[in-house]
Amino acid sequence: MIKHKNELRRESVESLRGGKGTTEFIHLLEKDQFHSKGRLFAHTILKPGASIGYHKHEGDYEGYYIIKGEGTFNDNGREYPVRAGDFTLIDVGESHGLENTGKEDLELIALVLFE
Asked: What residue spans define the domains of the chain?
């Protein structure tokens, strides 16, 4: 299977998980393509100042691979700077959030899988 750029579903979500601004998703897989093993695989874009609110993962875990920009990653209450090339992982029962603190878009690949 090949999905060309113009065939990927785009979605914009305001105040994701209680965060600020708009989170844009370019869905690489749709929910029915996970074979009950996950729920999100997407190129994710946060404009400067936008954020994904702090939230807990129950029954799933999530990784972010930062491909462009910089931000602050909240890992279970501790904040760390992140930039292109960094990878974050939140396991089942853990919490996280992400804010774009840079001057350009923060772009990442997000993957949520079930435990």
From this structure: 55-66+76-95
How confident is the model over 27-85, as pLDDT tens digits? 999 999 999 999 999 999 999 999 999 999 999 999 999 999 999 999 999 999 999 99
- The 3-class SS string of the chain reads CCCCHHHCCEEEEECHHHCCCEEEEEECCCHHHCCCCEEEEEEEEECCCCEEEEEECCCEEEEEEEEECEEEEEECCEEEEEECCCEEEECCCCEEEEEECCCCCEEEEEEEEEC
| pTM of the predicted structure, to 2 decimals | 0.95
